[in-house]
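Appendix B, record 7
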Amino acid sequence: MEMEKAILGIRARRAPESKESTESSSEGSVRGEEGSLEDRRLSQEAFEERGWRIRREGLAVRLFVDDFPEDDALFEPRPHAEFVPEPQGGYWHESSPLLLRIRVRPLQGSTVLRDRRRRHSEEAFHIPLCYTDELHRFDLRDGLAGVRQAVGFYGRLRERYDGKRAVLRGWLHGTELRLSRHTTVEGNRLGELLTDDSDVRMFRAAGSFHRQDLQVAL
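Structure tokens (predicted):
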């Protein structure tokens, strides 16, 4: 079936482990292809029924925005390797950029597209913003000034969304929920929509996700 084919192509993508250890589990070996219906412990009928409920009712979640990273090396447009001396000679270390994101935790009773808990090896549900080595693009003339601007924008995102309840609404493409303007966040005034947030747009425009819809991989 078409839905099954869409899922078979999805792999568990990797991201830095965050504060969701209580929602993840190393239990259960991978069944079938990773990310497939078999691995999700769902039948085709159950998957389609849950997808219909998400499209109709939305996905009730709590949002989290983690602290801004402090390692300046993460903001380099091109990572620089540093030599780490050791008694046996040492090695070269290169900092990898981190993904800035709005983490998403489904509330108890929410409809999810699997019947097992998240493994430690799997990324948390999230709305991607951009990578730390892309923040210099906030100011194309001065990379350091760009990073400083990004810090300010990120702080506003934390104030606006960290710890807030939300109902994510949109349409499903495979296992990705592409958010629509019907998405709501508690405490946000009329017109302050997550999908229209200018600060979110700034981060998305700065990096790898500028051509993608705002979405959550489920």
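Remarks on this record: The chain has one domain: 2-12+19-217. The first helix runs from residue 2 to 8.
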